[in-house]
Amino acid sequence: MDWSVDDYAENASFVSQFGDDVLMLLNPVSGEHILDLGCGNGELAEKIAAKGCKVTAIDSSKEMVNAAQTKGLNAYVMSGEDMNFETEFHAIFSNAALHWMKSSDKVLENVFNALKINGRFCAEMGGSGNVQTIITQIYTELDRRGLNGDNYNPWYFPSKEDYAYQLEKTGFQIDFIEQFERPTKLVTDVAGWIKTFAKPFLNDTPASPCEDFIQDINQAVADTLQDKNGIWYADYVRLRFNVIKNEKPIPNA
Length: 253
Ligand code: BEZ
Hints:
By secondary structure, this protein is α/β, with parallel strands linked by helices. The chain contains ten helices and seven strands.
């Protein structure tokens, strides 16, 4: 999807702020080579590099990769589905990016291949139920316009159980995995969140671009997502994990 770097910096600063918790779990050690998968504007990759690590950063958005490169990072336009690194990294880190990669089997296989033995994959993504109030309302508004939301939904929010199964099937050993609700304070209303984060729902449907469509959603979710002081929250659910590549799995075992 096309990201606006300025819009992201203004409305999405919480993404990298919350990413600090995942960085703690990653615990980067000086001298390690670490891949940031879905690096966005490179804010977190920069923090990893500041620990003395060699960082490679990839993202499918050219705009975001440009922003990361201006921070002096080795950043490349590449998707998790297409990357083909071979046993290069001590760790792979990913914050708020995996839920955009719907071919999760392929991504996990590529992550596994990219890690050295004993390498770790440490990440946070949206888990099942993530932004469900907003999604339900987007579906309702699309339905009112004769459209099926399933055809446009760009996200993959697995449950802890489903993802743990996929990680183990790929060959990872689970060190830690948890799913938790994290209502997230927005700097805008939900209309602003949709404009920043849900562009595929906006751009790909015949209902868009359409301010009415966004405002209808905003109004409908206000009772649930706006507090009595007028502050808006998104109903985020996070799936956070740290897993280890022990050894190559035996084919078809
Ligand atoms: C998330 O971080 O959960 C998220 C980000 C963008 C769109 C949807 C969810």
